[in-house]
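Morning - oxaloacetate ion inputs below, output right after.
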Amino acid sequence: MKVTVVGAGAVGASCAEYIAIKDFASEVVILDIKEGYAEGKAMDLMQTASLNGFDTKITGSTNDYSKTADSHIAVITSGIPRKPGMTREELIGINAGIVKTVSSSLLEHSPNVIIIVVSNPMDTMTYLVHKTTGLPKNRIIGMGGALDSARFKYRLAEAMEAPISDIDGMVIGGHSDKGMVPLTSHATRNSIRVSEFLSDERLEQVAADTKVGGATLTGLLGTSAWYAPGAAVSALVQAIACDQKKMFPCSTMLEGEYGLNDICIGVPVILGKNGIEKIVDIPLSDAEKAKMQESAEGVTKTNGLLEL
Ligand SMILES: NC(=O)C1=CN([C@@H]2O[C@H](COP(=O)(O)OP(=O)(O)OC[C@H]3O[C@@H](n4cnc5c(N)ncnc54)[C@H](O)[C@@H]3O)[C@@H](O)[C@H]2O)C=CC1
Ligand SMILES: O=C([O-])CC(=O)C(=O)O
């Protein structure tokens, strides 16, 4: 199983590291446009192999896509991250051009590849890859919901003073400060609804903190986060590579599901060897439906800025 990670920056390197440590891929190619950068990251990571006990071969490439040939999965993390005070949507001007070029270069050398889009604004970048590559929808996956759900679980565990392994929960909707829809009424601690443990006010605070999870970290770090994003990508890559049939919220092209059409937005999907093998269309409460609709309007507005 060969995996390419485009962008050797913070998220790309973190994701390559987690993939290697889990040791399920035979090869990870990291590619970056900056001369020598991907080669350097690959060499540094390879020098952790004997310490961390993995056999995945990691190689680097300065913009030479022939090295990515016949990849099964490719992750696009190339592009600029936001700085404190910015929204993800503000990145569209630079990142759209990068994501378009990168996806077409990947396909030249790996016509059967499954693409995971990470660059922001992620839902719109996922839509862009659909519109410009024409790939079947199961092979284009936007990563956002897996990360947002991990942050939701972190906030729920913190509020309940519970171990994170006790918590289950999911965030759907757009991957944006305003557009996320944490499914609070479905979240549980060992199958008991979290509302049994937390007041409505505390749950609202958890949801609010979850939605600005990325912005909070950007404020603290001066650039956006990478450990949890890298871990979230590696979990999606593993689900596909190992045909796990695991469910994650991912940005996918909707054709009527959740009452939405011609939009990529986060909903639960089953991931296996074919990429997105099923969209799970769960019933939402009226309040959740309204939030999902509002979120979709935000994503559609950003999509309108694309030059297609
Ligand atoms: N969807 C999500 O949940 C998340 C998305 N992101 C997004 O991921 C992207 C990357 O973030 P970081 O890794 O922190 O940024 P970074 O600046 O550390 O790394 C980006 C890398 O992309 C490279 N690059 C730029 N243009 C390229 C091209 N045409 N071809 C190949 N490489 C190119 C740069 O040289 C740089 O090394 C940002 O857009 C960020 O907003 C970040 C975290 C989570
Ligand atoms: O916040 C950002 O800009 C990066 C990102 O998408 C995240 O960490 O959720």
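Note: The longest helix spans residues 92-109.

O.
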